[in-house]
Write a structure and sequence with these properties.
Blueprint: H1 2-18, H2 27-53, E1 55-57, H3 60-71, E2 78-87, E3 90-100, H4 105-122, E4 126-136
Parallel strand pairs: 3-4
Antiparallel strand pairs: 1-2, 2-3
Helix pairs in contact: 1-2
Length: 139
């Protein structure tokens, strides 16, 4: 678009010079203004998009509710780590939990699916829940 505007401005200036139409001599200047507006528009869009990528912290009360929901599952022995990040209008939750080391992969998988569904049911802005399982050994 910028190249077309610049070429158009040059062509109008050449035509204005050849045909002695003084108004067309400003074609190059007008094209420069159009190109500048296009550049500012693109820069504004890029800047706006970059702010969407910024993460924001989740309110501590909401984090407490996440912990409460996760802890409500009897198979969760310990919450080792929980992290929630807000991106624009949705939340990504990443957590590490410890479960009995004798649980099968299927049991662990089913538990993580239940936790994910419960979190997403109680908080409709959660888009994704990633859960890492750690083995829990009772001393």
């Amino acid at each position: 678009m910028a190249s077309i505007a610049a070429a158009g401005g040059v062509i109008l200036s050449i035509i204005g010079d050849k045909l002695n139409i003084h108004v067309l001599l400003y074609g190059d200047n007008i094209a420069s203004i159009i190109v500048a507006i296009l550049i500012f528009k693109i820069a504004f869009e890029m800047l706006k998009d970059s702010f969407v990528l910024l993460e924001r912290n989740i309110d501590s009360e909401i984090m407490k509710d996440y912990r409460r929901i996760i802890s409500s599952f009897p198979d969760v022995k310990r919450i080792d780590r929980i992290r929630a990040r807000e991106h624009d209008h949705y939340v990504l939750v990443t957590l590490q939990i410890s479960i009995d080391h004798e649980k099968t992969i299927k049991e662990g998988h089913n538990l993580t699916r239940e936790i994910k569904h419960e979190l997403m049911k109680k908080h409709d802005n959660i888009e994704e829940v990633l859960i890492h399982l750690n083995p829990y050994y009772q001393n």
